[in-house]
From TrEMBL, chains A, B:
CDD domains in UniProt: TOPRIM_recR
Family, similarity comment: Belongs to the RecR family.
NCBIfam families named among the record's database cross-references: recR
Lineage: Bacteria, Pseudomonadati, Pseudomonadota, Gammaproteobacteria, Alteromonadales
Pfam family, one: RecR_ZnF
UniProt keyword Membrane present: no
Zinc finger (C4-type): 57-72
Protein name: Recombination protein RecR
Gene: recR
Record InterPro entries: DNA_Rcmb_RecR, Rcmb_RecR, Rcmb_RecR_Znf, TOPRIM_dom, TOPRIM_RecR
Amino acid sequence: MKFSPLLDELIEQFKVLPSVGQKTAQRMAFHLLERNREGALKLSDALRNAMEHIQHCRQCRTFTESDLCDICASSKRQASGTVCVVESPQDVLAIEQTSQYQGLYFVLMGHLSPIDGIGPKDIGLDVFAGMLDDTDTQEVILATNSTVEGEATAHYIHQLCQEREIKTTRIAQGVPVGGELEYLDGSTLVHAFSGRREL
Amino acid sequence: MKFSPLLDELIEQFKVLPSVGQKTAQRMAFHLLERNREGALKLSDALRNAMEHIQHCRQCRTFTESDLCDICASSKRQASGTVCVVESPQDVLAIEQTSQYQGLYFVLMGHLSPIDGIGPKDIGLDVFAGMLDDTDTQEVILATNSTVEGEATAHYIHQLCQEREIKTTRIAQGVPVGGELEYLDGSTLVHAFSGRREL
């Protein structure tokens, strides 16, 4: 025991947060006790509510407290016939903020990673196959990250879609807007050249 | 609304923590939802318990859920006749870890800072004066930080003690153990010279 039992317990529990160690946990605990007890109580309630009620959307697997998330529940989106496959709910947010895409999503909540024992079922590809079979999907847009695991996952999903003769596309790889050629890595440049478009 | 209402609420509430903004709050929320719901529920309980039950020690003002903290409740410490004045509970921990000091503490929970409107009463100096009057204190050790505010606070407390003819000492300023002279600032060197001791 270092401080009082309840204070030690609070500091210990703060360490469940990512990249929070002993010193940061102490700083958080003292900050809340000294300056914002009301905020801390609200945080406590928000944590309990979120952990007890937030589930995965039945169709797209994103986090939601309803059976279907708002996007899946929209009939306009359902009628689009397009599904964009992403790795995380944050990716959905990033795409939604562009206001350009009006179709459905499927959130893998990760990527294939045999080395960590994460196979197709762990990222919900059985649910995804069911979704393809049940709905009238015209196009699957693969928007997994441009990492080795993301590419492997995209490749695997591409095969799933090929078996069902559904058109699959991969988001473009190339020079980011505002990017300068001299600082780009070689493989991005190779992609930028091979993916060039006629003006 | 960005995600679902409960998730947005959780992300919003995480921002009460020091140096946590939108992105870190999102990362914390998703980390707990995906990987550690049980830990999150424990954190929720620990927060509520701590905020509802932790008060200030009646005598030394540190955080405790009892009326008197463990140190103030110890009769051996009470008999020492020494009070060490520090700025925060973390300072108490740092001193306790040396196992060298066996007296009582008084925790200011801050320092005098007229510019922020923090006067003697806000750092409990009225409680401290009462403690001096009520108990048989032989020595007050001033262990506030070696900053401008810490020094000003130490000076103010020194005057309080002088009025009551109680011996006051200030912890030594000088070269830290392992410190190299060439990298020390000038004022620390001046203190190290003026505080030199005969061998």
